[in-house]
Amino acid sequence: MAALAVNGGVKVVGPATHTEAYLESKPMKETRALVSELCRQFYTLGWVSGTGGSITIKVHDDSIPKPQQLILMSPSGTLSLTVYLLSEICNSSPLYVYAGIWIGVQKERMEPEDMYVLSGNGSILSSPSPKPYPHKPPKCSDCAPLFMKAYEMRDAGAVIHSHGMESCLVTMLNPMSKEFRITHMEMIKGIKGHGYYDELVVPIIENTAYENELTDSLTKAIHGKLSYRIDPNTVKPVMASSITSFQTNAYPSNLTNIEAYPKTTAVLVRNHGIYVWGDSWINAKTQAECYHYLFDAAIKLHQLGLDWSTPSHGPLQNGKGVSGRNGNLNMSTNALTADSNYDSNLLPRCIVLDIEGTTTPISFVTEVLFPYARDNVGRHLSATYDTSETQDDIKLLRSQVQDDLQKGVIGAVPIPSDDAGKEEVIAALVTNVDAMMKADRKITALKQLQGHIWRTGFESHELEGVVFDDVPEALEKWHALGIKVYIYSSGSRLAQRLIFGNSKYGDLRKYLSGFFDTAVGNKRETQSYVEISQSLGVDKPSEILFVTDVYQEATAAKAAGLEVVISVRPGNGPLPENHGFKTINSFSEI
Q1: How would you list the strands of the sheet with 179-183, edge to edge?
Q2: Is 380 within any annotated ligand binding site?
Q3: How far apart (Å, rounded) are the C-alpha atoms in residues 73 and 237?
Q4: Which of 36, 80, 442, 516 is the most buried (most CB within 10 A)?
């Protein structure tokens, strides 16, 4: 190993003839400049003032596999910046370059050369040379293990660590909460995989005295296929003058039961800040901006006595029911008031509703929606055949049909390749879809296509959502009481939104906090309700009330610990004798 100087102040340890050329490369210089620019911008936003805040970025290159793209990272006590770049030095294993400014360099004055460079195994290839007083000696960042978790477990392209005031205060609104939840806010659309009507859930982990001790909690929150834990006893950055390696000693951790937040793109640290990641620096930056906006909105709604976690952001619920800033809440349409006889301690925290036979007559599904979808399969596929959405539908159907053919499912016929021509493919698809619908199969491939066909019908006003007359008033009442209401149906989430968003009573989605479909699991399987319970973040499953008309679904939900009542509506099928469940004929009985 040899030491040499480059850029007039960077000490390099490593194979000199290769490392120097790499550090002088155009991609590295451009990324260093980008990091400096973002550092100044984030400083003005208040994300990285004082000693806090960080960002890591991977440099995109189509010719380089993403896992082989490298990094830049800053030390503890200042803004941490990490950039992954490719280096193929003597055919060695891919290198990860961590670059960072040292303690004492102000974030708004950071220069491209104020950075550390590390290899993928933790060996420091380059460290900044100490600057004169009052600057302190350089020290590598304590955030390194946390950054690596997002890259290893989520295939991130960039990670931002912010100490923005709103990201700190929002974790204090409810000191006992392990999650931040918000819904029906436009900026939710800026978070990957979320829309306006979705409920955004961000896990909250507890702060520790030292940043690297957060690694285990962060790992549990973001959970990959194989979780690894960084041993905090061996992650000890020391002064750059003596360090030659950043030891991580990762080893498998017993986290196989932690799967609560597999899709999250952020983790809040209580009284501290937030880590946000994305597949590129632009995506991570956009999401970070949206998260900070949503946190700020929640804080301001809280100050107004309003609940940011419910669809209409009504008055917050207190220990004795619901109250506004003056302690009283007036509700319309025969709804409740704060001095009602309702005991909030007896109310469920969440209600999960089935659709067919529960909120909506079975006849609407069997005599209106199903026939519409069946009659328009060919027309829909023909009109939208070349769109990415329909091609995705066809891909799912091909996979399902292939599986059906192997299992000998009646009605399944082979779907020819695209070479056979559009008309031949569509004809085979229509035949398979018709057979699936006649068998009333609850499969994602069918439900997704049906949802897209129904969307056309609702948009053209050929279809209108139907719910029982007692449903709108009950939804309004529960919403006013602070009870979150969700839908769980075998129909796609799109189809669910269409029914409630286009009903004869208007748009009822404002009363709904979220939607579940068969992607969470079959409705007759207990594990599906376990997954829903974990997603809703309740302390115990019994805080959820599930309402359905199907005995097998009720049995599965009860086995998962949920409270269950069975809906008895006109046109519903008979129930087994001595089924053991409470029944209702109207939501007013709940």
Answers
A1: 98-100, 80-84, 54-58, 158-162, 273-278, 266-269, 199-205, 179-183
A2: no
A3: 13
A4: 80
Beta-carbon-side half-sphere exposure of residue 571 (alpha carbons within 13 Å)? 13
Write out the catalytic residue numbers: 186
**Residue 18 known to bind ligand:** no
Q: What is the dihedral of CA 565, 570, 571, 575, to 10 degrees?
A: 40
Residue 100 exposure: Cα atoms within 13 Å on the Cβ side = 29
Q: Which residues contact 315 (CB under 8 A, 6 or more apart)?
A: 305, 306, 307, 322, 323, 324, 325, 329
φ and ψ at residue 108, rounded to 5 degrees: -75, -5
**pLDDT tens track for 110-130:** 777 877 776 655 667 777 777
Residue 442, both tokens: 């609850």
Secondary structure (H, E, C), 55-92: EEEECCCCCCCHHHCCCCECCCCCCEEEEECCCCCCCC
pTM for this model (two decimals):
0.55
Tell me how far apart the alpha carbons of residues 176 and 203 are, in angstroms, rounded to a whole number: 12
Whole-angstrom distance, CA of residue 540 vs CA of residue 393: 37
Q: Where are the alpha helices (DSSP H) in 88-193?
A: 144-154, 165-169
pLDDT tens digits along 387-419:
999 999 999 999 999 999 999 999 999 999 999
Query: The tokens of 230 are what?
Result: 């960084």
